[in-house]
Amino acid sequence: MHKARQKWRLACMVVAAMMPPAFGQGTASTPIAVAPVVVRMDTQTEFSSVEVSNRGDRPTSVEIEVVRVRWTDGREQYERTGDFTVSPPVFRMQAGKSRVIRFKFGAQRQETEGFYRLFIHQLPEETAASQVSMVFKLGVPIFIAPLSPRPSLMLVRSTGPDRPPELHNTGNVTLTVVELDGQGCPAGPQKVLARLSPEQKLVLRDSVMSCTTSARTDLGVVQLTAR
Q: I need a surface site. Which of 25, 69, 117, 181 has the fewest CB within 10 A?
């Protein structure tokens, strides 16, 4: 039971770390839900899907858009892309109903993981008072595995009060780092909970113990290289 709770807690933490800064907005009367909230497509997978549900009390129209994500100055930047075919791209859902959205990745895989977001736009509706209602926008991350996945993290230790420790993703896949640990560390694991894309770094606010040698991630335990 304890292990099951740990796995559930880890899954919830990983999902939270993958959400964009503003994942959704809107009114409680027209909520849109989606599952799963993260899609990973391995080297053998070209097709995938998500299920969109209308949990509100009125019909709503939805438009699907897939964009490529680039990191610029630590923030997500979106680019239009033709790498995916989506079906259906636009549809209408009755209250309490769901719809499966299928999509195909049609581009060539690269040496580094591809990062995309599938945006689910709820289209505005006119109310009885001829006012436009607020809408939701959900962004599901899609990770396209590279030709040869290689998870790797490097820990750059602090060299002074003005140079805090840093964690660098030196691999070619995105990792959600839950905690840092090492054999015999007296204080136990150090919580991190951050998502790092390839070539991205994280400045750690807390000092890192010298016994730290590994990181627990959504892809398993990764041994740290140090500098």
A: 25
